[in-house]
Design a protein that fits this description.
The complex is a heterodimer of chains A (230) and B (82).
Chain A lengths: L2 E6 L6 H10 L3 E6 L8 E6 L19 H11 L4 E4 L1 H8 L6 E3 L10 E6 L15 E5 L6 E3 L2 H9 L3 E6 L18 E5 L5 E4 L17 H11 L2
Parallel strand pairs in A: 1-2, 1-3, 3-4, 4-11
Antiparallel strand pairs in A: 5-8, 6-7, 6-9, 9-10, 10-11
Chain B lengths: L1 E8 L6 H12 L12 E6 L5 H16 L5 E7 L4
Antiparallel strand pairs in B: 1-2, 1-3
């Protein structure tokens, strides 16, 4: 059975949580220390949310050059599934696997709202088995959640259908303001060219248990597990 | 030698914190403030006497870690010996 590695940096705050979620879905998963240079037999890597290395300098920046980032790059280049959630998304941008950067929310507020998010691309292992046009309710937990890149890059991302998730308002229209974030093109998640790497800002790991209210985050983990069992 | 790395946000990047700062300065009576942008200052103490070589090394530090060129640029300022 395929295993999934969940990266643990100093300051990651949901690595153990993601392992627990996967195990609850009968999926073998283990914590991968940031000093690790190999992920043993892992078929996929997940970089969880939190504040890696205190988010000093810039969110996600201080992980650069750690052994595990070399490993993540190899997985990404080899076409294996790599997922970054929240801080994990910021890390994937900082180490150059995904385009753009996550800026401080223009509202200057920590965003802890719930967001309506639609899956717009099914090319990644994490969205492949999610039904088309699925509208989800997902929690946010970020201070640096405003996606930014230059005009040419955002056009390329749109043309190549790499915007995997987008924020919508309560009326089902694209939410330009997206509850404090003002993320460019209301982008909530983006993939690499090949589609095997996905970074997303909504905290899908905080929406997996009906005891906590929201469960839509489970769809991404289930999709990955289905993909690995193909 | 001591070197200061001044990191600024690129002009096309909106500086939300700078906008709030400017607004507060105006409210405090400094109405002449037209804009404010907040950067970072990194003070480095470097074991070297070669200023040009150090400048090159700091440039490499910026490329590899200190700045994100998508949104930031940098200037190196050497401190005069006291």
């Amino acid at each position: 059975m395929a295993k999934i590695a969940v990266v643990d940096f100093p300051g990651s705050n949901s690595s153990a949580e993601v392992v627990r979620i996967l195990k609850n879905l009968d999926q073998d998963a283990f914590l991968l220390n940031y000093r690790a240079e190999s992920a043993k037999e892992a078929a996929a890597i997940i970089i969880p949310g939190g504040f890696s290395f205190g988010d000093y300098l810039r969110p996600g920046a201080l992980v650069k050059g750690t052994p595990v980032t070399g490993l993540v790059k190899r997985y990404a280049n080899d076409g294996k599934p790599v997922l970054g959630i929240g801080n994990g998304f910021q890390i994937l941008c900082e180490i150059g696997i995904l385009p753009g950067v996550l800026l401080q929310n223009p509202s200057m507020k920590f965003c802890n709202e719930e967001a309506n998010v639609r899956v717009e691309s099914h090319g990644s292992p994490f969205t492949k088995y999610i039904p088309e046009d699925t509208m989800m309710r997902l929690p946010m937990a970020c201070y640096y959640g405003s996606f930014y890149t230059d005009k040419r890059t955002i056009k390329d991302l749109e043309d190549a259908k790499r915007v995997a998730l987008r924020y919508y308002d309560q009326y089902g229209e694209v939410d330009l303001y997206n509850g404090f974030l003002s993320s460019l093109h209301s982008l909530a998640g983006v993939t690499n060219k090949e589609g095997n790497v996905l970074g997303l800002m909504p905290r899908i790991d905080l929406a997996t248990d009906s005891l906590l209210g929201l469960t839509d985050g489970l769809m991404f983990f289930k999709s990955l597990i289905n993909y690995l069992n193909e | 030698m001591k070197a200061n790395v001044l990191i600024r946000l690129n002009e096309d990047v909106i500086d939300a914190a700078g906008r709030v700062l400017k607004q507060r300065l105006v409210e405090l009576g400094f109405a002449e403030v037209r804009a404010a942008r907040i950067g970072k200052l990194i003070e480095l103490d470097i074991e070297s006497a070669d200023q040009e070589g150090t400048r090159e090394r700091i440039s490499q530090m910026c490329d590899r870690l200190l700045i994100n060129p998508d949104i930031e640029n940098f200037t190196v300022l050497f401190e005069e010996k006291k």
